[in-house]
Fold each of these.
Amino acid sequence: MDECVAVLGSGSWGTTLAKVAADNGRTVLLWARRPELSEEINRTRRNQAYLPDISLPDGVQGCADLAQICARTKLIFLVVPSHGLREIAAKLGDLVSGEHVIVHATKGIERESHKRMSEVVREETCVRRVGVLSGPNLARELALGQPAGTLVASRYEEVFVRCQQVLNNGYFRAYSSEDVIGAEVGGAFKNVVALAAGIAHGLGLGDNSKALLITRGLSEMTRLGVAMGAEPATFAGMAGIGDLIATCSSTLSRNHQVGMRLARGETIEQIQAQMQMVAEGVKTARAIQEFALRHELDLPIVRAVHRLLYEGCDVPTALRDLMATPTGIERAALG
Amino acid sequence: MRPQDAERAKQAAAARVVSSYLARERGQHRLEVLINDTLYHEQRRLERENRKDPGVRADLSFYRGVRRALSRADTGELETLVTSMAGRFASEIAGHFDERVYRVATTLVPAGLSLLLSASEPHKLASLSSLRSALREHLLIQGAVDQVRALMSRGTLVVVPTHSSHLDSIALGYAVYLLGMPPLLYGAGLNLFKNPLISFFMQNLGAYRVDRKKNASLYKDVLKEYATATLELGYNNLFFPGGTRSRSGAVEQKLKKGLLGTAMTAYVRNLQAGKPNPNLYFVPCTISYKLVLEAETLIDDYLKEVGKSRYIIEDDEFSKPRRILNFLRSLISLDSRVVITFGEVLDIVGNRVDPEGTSRDARGRPIDPVSYVRREGQPVHDPQRDSQYTGEVANAVAQAFLRDNVLMSTHVVAHALLTLLRRHNPGLDLYRLLRTGGGQPALGAGLIADEVDAIRKALREQPHGPRLSPELLQPDALAVVDDALRHFQTYHSEPAAVREGEQVRHRDRNLLYYYANRLRHYGLPGFDRRDEVAHG
């Protein structure tokens, strides 16, 4: 019998993953923080707030009861914002056993502790078989059935095998890797580059600049990843360069929006005052900058974004300083 | 181990290795490759051995027979050949069991040590009882002792200690005796059995033989299966997860997963067989000495070529009875203690276990360990999964080592001296500094005491260990320096450092480096991060 799976988090990405699995004939228990949303999904077969024009297959079942979910399925996708992941993981900790598998699809680093999401899951639950799903995945495109790929990384082979069985189909391909750290660093780091890409866009810069940003962003991502214990090759894949390309091409993300407004001369305080949620890149830039200082890593793009966000620097100065950093041997940076 | 159990373990080991090869894809072909691999490695090993040795001659003759049979063997005979080779290895590992010796050994462990001492200097034989009490006084057993005792009846223990000296297994064997536990089974290097003084102790520990010169994969498989079989029979085992004595003196952080993994195999088999007490528990443990018997040889070997250390050392202090005796005398005269610290017991995937035997997650919630290996309701093996679980255990054990490492005056004073020397000689790299000593042949004792103060302050601020030995906690740092110097001067052939009035002269800086390395892995200044990776 095909495995029933759970997706915790009914945002656009969680709902989309649930749809992919249900398109493959799986029963998917889709959990939402607000029970009304689960009811709405069951009643209307739609998630009006996040994916209004997508019709959800019958296999997607909204469910607000975590205990019931953990009893019915052993494979759980955790798709909640990074700042809320620990709280949900702690609740799961009361309900799961060593038999469960948790795969998170959250791109970020915990704000205070600078921990990766899989570390948070490990701390809050007894689950050992943990994985991460990360890649160039704009939810709406995937929900429309446009071809896309992603990466599932876990130290445990059966984790990515089971994910592939659940997710792979005619429009979605999940590649596998054992490099959990690489997948998580790639996913978190690209949000900072997205912010920078938004700035470049806001300044009206063209494709040369974008290519420079993506390539050097990849270099910084790799250096950071290697310092944290990742495999450099991971960044040449879905969770690295793949995600950077998609991120820097899309103008809709929250990170990109923040970048564009910074380029127009607004301060981060002004921008945040008008946004309901903090863009992941804003939090991640601080965490990475702190890590880089502690480990003596040279990450000029992160430093520039950090100066803009937290040190009162203006965009022209940050850009000028960034372009003034010495150029060295290109590959040396790739660790 | 009861003789019938040794026989069962031996037979199970050989049979399982053969069937595991047959169960794989192209099993027959694999058998042929396996036979040739074994012949090749054994031939190479035997070429280096003394051909007059009866054992070597018997081996040569056996493999000649195998080679002859192989040339005309059909598929059925391949299996017979592998079975006979595996059986031969298994017999050698299990050793010839003398029940009489075993009975004496398990009831009279302390007598063994006196035998060791008396054999080396028969005319100065101390009385048995005084030796026993001396031993008891000089061995401090601390940590999760009650928990370890409580869990003995609830499952099978795998004791995993740090390893700095061949005396470790003896000290631990004695500790286990004092705690009223049955002897630990232990895979001891063949060279230890060749040492007549120590071979007796190996029996005390219920040791089986490990020949590190045998590189054939068949041999390693049989060895692993033998250990697994003894665990399944419920015998507590002792594994040194570092694989060998720490050459640098640092607490081991890169642990070998091969032997650790046998516990998971035994656990799943226990569950599948429906045994009443299927659980296996890992007991991390640190063994700390102010002075290490083999320090001089180990650090020399380490420095000769970092990363290319000799795996087997047969000519160290341990092979010289007089050195052992001197060492034990120093221990007693200095009123120094060997400290064995049992850490929190871990389950099969590295969760903490409470005294009732219940696994607990990081937040203290109870967990059923069976859930980690169950698939569709049944406990199953999954080699990839299980090797990752073992990796989790290795990480947890490595953390326990750092938490329960007991630092002593010799370690901290050695680090203080080296730190000062490095500060005074900023242009010298470490290796040149160790060789030449830099520009200052001696340093002020007061200066060293100040450095000791700074180091112990930094150590106290560490959130996850180490533990500090009582003499390090005394307010007067100068007394700590003197305590360390007294030790340095008493045992080693060249003292690491000596007091000359208000000055302390450094003499054997390699030894200082060895003892200072015990402070490695805590992120303290003086230990380069990149350097730490190389040390493992």
Amino acid sequence: MEFVGTLSGSAPILKKYQIAATTTIVGVPHLITASSGSGLAIATTTSLADVIGVNLDTATYVSAQQTGNANAERTNTFVINPDAIYKVRLSGGAAAGTALPLQTVTTASSDGLVVTTAAEWSSPSMDEGSVWGYSGANVGQLRKITSVSTTAGTVIVPFNYDTVVGDVFLRAPVHPMTTVVAQLCTELTEIDATAAVSGASFLVIAMLHQDLAGDGRNQSYVLGVFGDHFLNRLS
Amino acid sequence: MFNFIRTEKQYTKADREKMARAPGRPHGRVAGGWVSDLVSLGKAVVLCGMCQKKFRAKKCGYEVRRLMPDKPYVIGECDGCGNTTRDGQLYMKRQEK
């Protein structure tokens, strides 16, 4: 996750906090210290309850006295703005950096309302998520998915052109000003776009979806804020 | 006669946030040495306007990092003097291009 701004326009507020686990990558959301915990805890893929912010640097956690009485305290720097906006990449799997899977149309739609593919849409459910054109006549157009079946995603506002066999779409289980949860990747830095709309409280503000020309499989992001920040619980 | 029942202290979430806060530069530690320690660990360094002049970022392999394009400053505690600054500069280890 990359801090990109704040809703209020405030400058980023940085604080150093002790951590309770080793961090090897930056941009990982951290949660308030657990009861009897020694420092800020790392979030999980499905929980962002009482989040503090994301780390800007890394540290190796120790819980033993150090040689020569060296300092055992390990800290990371965090952006703690409760209204911080983060840019989060959409990953095509549980591992960060995975390309989004292509959804190739297998049955044409004469009204531009249905994207029928060989992939499963209802498990994990992509309902209430987003689908956008990757290549074909509807390239770049994004629509909200309003219902799903085992082979198709349906929208209410049609794509501008009929979908034809061979058109390619991308999809994600999140949609701006709709989604309040998102499942994170194992590394906790990206959203797992292949998981159902469930998991950690994250409010999506905007989709930065890309098509073929913009390498949409690897360069699609969302902007959002934490829904359950420790300093401002929105949900 | 009073009987006291001792219970485990109930820490609020605010208490736990306070406990997690890093104390920063130890008392008696020279600012330059403390910042050097942070640099050697590759940590993020926040410096106020006065302390920025004393930090040779390029020599340390550091660079100014703007988290927001239109906001050159960050709010935080200066790793040099320890004062809260509203016009602090964030320095991060220079990334290889």
